Amino acid sequence: MTLIKIKNVSLVDRAGQRTHATAIFQGSPGDLIGIFEEGQEEEVGNNNDDDDDNNNVTDRESDTIVDGTGCTLLPGFIDGKVETGSVVASLDTFARFGICTVIDMSSNDTDADILREVTRAEIGLPRYLASGPPALPKSQPSSSQGQPQRQRSTTAATTTTTATTTTTTTTTPAVFHRAVEVVQTREDAERFIESRVSRQDGSADFVGVVTGEPDLDNALLSALVDGAHRRGRKAVAHAGRAEGFARALEAGFDVIVQAPIDEPISEELAAALAAKGVVCVPTLIAMRQVVEYLNGSRVQQQQQQQQQQQQQQQEYEDDCRGTRMEDVQEEGQESAPQGRAAESGLEDVSFDHALTSVRRLHAAGVVICAGSGAHTTRERGLPFGQSLHEELELLVLAGLSNLDAIKAATSLTAESLGLRDRGMLQPGLRADLVLLEGNPLVDIRATTRIRRAWVQGIEVNLQ
């Protein structure tokens, strides 16, 4: 058994801070086997009290000794909301940023299967869990039948039909999710859940459902939640709008991702969510990017309108002597492109709404978990790994303490998503560890100053 000892280090986890401590863990791969505060005897073992020779290894030299002076040891980070696509290299990137577990809430099944297979075949990579694309519950006329539709969000509307699946693209841009599966009947809902949990290559670890779009079927939302719970899966609501939070509460979702940007949630709704034990993964950095994307399109729209009006002004002066200028301007405004914000139904968006919502949720006692929403969308990608550390800064900006932000990326996410073998510095748990220079309780940006990291005891190559 390879033993690694980190001495003279500060420990920070859900229990708070412990200084001048020692951590001992297995390294090939393995678990934490001892945490000792100053003055405690460093005795580790195999939990077999009848075998004294194996229990008492205090005289044995550790295979590796790391001096942790001036450093802080944290549990490995968990990114509670990503979309890796088929980017296998993302796993190495996550690890270099101290992220030992990633939760993919959006990638399609084929891509998720690829990453699952890679993590099964190679030790030392972050644990990868996935839900597959979320369901979009919209009812249809009773005469319509068939399998759940697969819908990909773009800016062009087309439909392609095969023998079993209808693939639909809509005029809604890929603001919150790139692909969804449309569920239109209770039978569709059952088929969707069954397809999520009984896949041969890898069952979904969670069930995702969109709650933040207009004109959703509330009965189908409840049916999807019930189906997920019957099959032992947590139901995750993809919100993005305040209305999506209210729908998620009514339908009984366990987790809500994406803070609202159309308006802040009310204090009353925050209190109700806390009373029901609903967990929130606000993905603030992703929502900030969505706001910038939509508002950027509005600026572009205004510039296009201005250019069109200038052109029409010139035409008016040359050819339209009898036409009133006001009529030309009105025609130009009517014919101007509507832009991404209008197409998405989100014309008055603000990142402040997301920050205010997180502040109210946290004050009400809702568990806040950290997720970056990192992805590779061509127009506006969010970098893997780095984005989670920026998310921690935004959570602090929204009112969480530094310790609460660290817990949001470690123990709280582990507990909330049922990952009970990680997230704490505790003997018997996975040796997912991050050694930082400095103290993140003083400066949350210290989470980026990673000196060494281990995924289940296997050291990460930080280069």
Automatic annotation (TrEMBL):
It comes from Phialemonium thermophilum. Residues 42-54 have a biased composition (Acidic residues). It comes from the Eukaryota. InterPro entries: Amidohydro-rel, Metal-dep_hydrolase_composite, Metal_Hydrolase, Metallo-dep_Hydrolase. Residues 139-172, 305-314 have a biased composition (Low complexity). Residues 89-457 form the Amidohydrolase-related domain. Residues 42-63, 126-172, 305-345 are annotated as: Disordered. This is Amidohydrolase-related domain-containing protein.
